[in-house]
Structure formats: C-alpha cells, structure tokens
Write the structure tokens for this entry.
Amino acid sequence: MAKVSAPIQEVSRLLDLVPFLSTHSYISLKDLALEFGVTEKEIAKELTALSMCGENKFELIDVTFDSGFVTIRDHERLDIPRALTNLEVASLLIGLELMRDGAGEEHAEILSKIDLLISKLSSLAGEAIEIGTHPEAQNIAKIERAIAERALLNISYESSLKGESQDRLVEPLSIYIDKSQRYLNAYCHKAKAYRNFRLDRILAIENSSAAPAIDRGSENSGEKEGFTIEVLRRKRAISEFLQIEQLPATGVVEVEAYSPEWVAKAVTSFAPDMALKAPLGNRAEIRAAMEKILSLYRS
C-alpha cells in the first residue's frame, strides 16, 4: 500500500477535527493531540489553519485554544458536506482524465481507481457534463512516456505540403512550444534526419517494438556536441524551445545537441533573435547558408 503523504494526512485530520470538536468542546490541547496521534505543536498548527476555513471570508470557523483548552463555534455550515456544483465536478473530471492519460497501462490498480472515481462523479452530474480528453493531450502523454523510456513510436502524420497522411517511425526527443504551437522534436527513421512535427497534425500514435537507432550517419555520431548560443530577443520563446528554465543576463548559454543540422535550423528559424557563437566552423556554415538564401531574394 502506498504511503500517505503528510499534506494528505493533515487535510484528513482537518476534515475530522470539525465533527470531533463539535461533540468534544473544551477538550485539552494535550488530549486532542493524543486523540489524533500528533504532537501538541502539530495540532495547534492545524487548529490555526482550521480557524481560517469557513463558508466565506465573513463566516469563518471560530476556534480558540490559547488557554490550553479547545473551543469551536460557527461550525454548523461545515457539519454537513457541501454538494459539488457542476463546475466543480467538471474540474475534478478533467483532472482525473489527465491523471488517467499520464498513468500508463502498467499502473492497472491506479487506473481502476481513477475509472471508479470518474464513474461516480459522472453519475452525480448526469447528462449535464460530458468530459473527454483532447486527442492532443493523450498524444503528449504517450510521447512523454516514450521520451522517458527512450522508446520509438509509430506516428501517422498529416503533411502540410502533400496534404496526405504519412506513416513515420520516430525516436521522440522533446516537446516544445513556438508561436502558440506545440511541436515534437524527433529523429525520423524514414528521413534519416531530425524533424519537427506539429502535434495537431499527428493523427495517431502507437508504441513500436523497434530498437532506438545508434548510428545516425553524418548527422550524429552518437555523442552530444556542445554549442554556444546567444539569445538577443524573444527570450521566453527561445528558452522554451531550448528547454532552459532561466536565461542568464548576458543571454549566452551553453547547449548540447546530437545534430549540428538541428542547431543550424534552430538558429536560422530564430534569426536575428538568436545567434550561434561557437563552434566557429558551424557558425561559418550557417552564415554561408543564410547568405545563399538571401542571394535568392536579391536576384
């Protein structure tokens, strides 16, 4: 059986304290602590928290224990459990659906309990609420599990250029957001290169039994390389893309990547807001590529 965390234990005691104190008025702080199996300091802390609870900020529970004996007043509204509103039921159902998608099929016991809670809450709401997880949220959960397990995925992807779906075998590396769009960065075995896939264009995802690639040709020798990048503007978008929690004041960061080509594409797409400072060889290649692109516009 899973060990119950301290915060959950505290909430459980707070819920039990109200009905207990309503029938045991003027109980000593020492006896109350013994009754609930905690120290006097802990029970005093929870009584203080209880004094901040109520129907609203104008109708708080009146709890006093300064004299060493505990008294409680204005608790009647909490003696009977309050019925959940449809909005509260909907919020709980959404949270349970997200937990279910993230749990994974290997956690059968947890999934059965979540399903039971969903069934009970759905029966309370009746037909007033119908909750379903967005397919993109389910895909994100599958991708994150694959990243953690370093597993491959078979995806069906809708190409924006060809206007048709294509089957790809990919090794997912990360999920990032750019201009309000979520993307999957992965190594594509069909293209034999790193590719970015828009999540809203992924039609289906299935786990693959294939082994991850080790040799990826000239793009990746199997070892990460270091790159020095300077972020000039759009710091929030770029930090999310690079998965950096906080950029330094200078904007200069050291990143590691398997593919120099991926770095070149990232710098090109974010230019002039992001620049590659080192290695100089890669910097020269990116400069030459960008000058070639600009020459096409000048001609």
